[in-house]
Specification:
The chain is an alpha/beta fold and 254 residues long. A hairpin with a 4-residue loop joins strand 3 and strand 4. The protein is globular and about 55 Å long. It contains 8 helices and 13 strands. Helix 3 crosses helix 6.
């Protein structure tokens, strides 16, 4: 018997037009009637996702790819992990010769030098949900303000495979490599690009789901997870049953 359902947001519950279909809402309403808790597992921060979770009547939220877990019914924070400044500095040092766009997320803000990729997308979709700090130097701003960073995002119109390999050699951070090219083009900002979604060490949706299941005294056998992208694979491993959407990325689907 399934006692908990964990679901990704973008591309899973939310469509390309950033809306939730009537069918998906009906399914979620049926879960409520059966008293099966819903966990939203997303790369988005809590500030961005808060209203969406409320509309979905979600019971728990895993945000920033696992860096934060919140009991949405009580508001209690079950887990919060941030990237240390030393790790951030190491990350910037590694990519300094690549000329890449990098922005950072705190609990309620985006720190960037120029709105270009995912930061531009989120500023368009959630203008009232998150503050945009446009600064001369993202690294200096983080240092001067002692900012608590939940995740970093590095973006480029060209391949980031070499950059990912370099970062994995010089840091212990968790890195998801996502492509928004071809049929996966970002239609919100009308751009093709790749990005590296960087979380604290040993933090994934899967590790967070394991922590939450322990918190709720549930076993792996009690959990069903649903997703469509690379950062959902670890969540699948933490579940007894997993469902991949047929619109999932090519290198994600079996």
């Amino acid at each position: 018997m399934i006692r908990l359902i964990a679901s990704d947001l973008d591309g899973t519950i939310i469509g390309n037009n950033n809306s939730i279909s009537e069918t998906n809402m009906q399914v979620i309403n049926n879960l409520q009637k059966k008293n099966i808790p819903l966990v939203i597992c997303t790369g988005k921060t809590y500030a961005i996702s808060k209203d969406i979770c409320k509309n979905l009547h979600a019971n728990f939220g895993i945000f920033g790819n696992g860096s934060q877990i919140i009991n949405l019914s009580t508001g209690d924070e079950i887990l919060k992990k941030t990237i240390s400044f030393d790790e951030i500095n190491s990350c910037f040092s590694t990519i300094q010769n690549y000329g890449l766009h990098i922005h950072a997320y705190t609990e309620d803000s985006i720190i960037t030098s120029n709105l270009l990729y995912m930061d531009l997308r989120n500023s368009i979709l959630f203008p009232d949900k998150i503050k945009i700090e446009i600064v001369d130097s993202v690294l200096d701003y983080i240092k001067d303000h002692n900012s608590s960073i939940l995740k970093l995002v590095i973006s480029s119109p060209t391949s980031l495979t070499t950059v990912k390999d370099s970062l994995e050699k010089t840091t212990n951070l968790t890195i998801n490599h996502i492509s928004k090219t071809g049929i996966y083009k970002d239609i919100i900002i009308d751009k093709e690009y790749e990005y590296l979604d960087i979380s604290p060490s040993n933090i994934t949706k899967g590790s967070a789901l394991q922590i939450l299941s322990n918190y709720l005294n549930l076993k792996k056998e009690d959990i069903l997870s649903i997703g469509d992208n690379i950062n959902d694979i670890d969540m699948f491993k933490a579940s007894n049953i997993s469902a991949a959407l047929n619109n999932g990325f090519d290198n994600f689907l079996p």
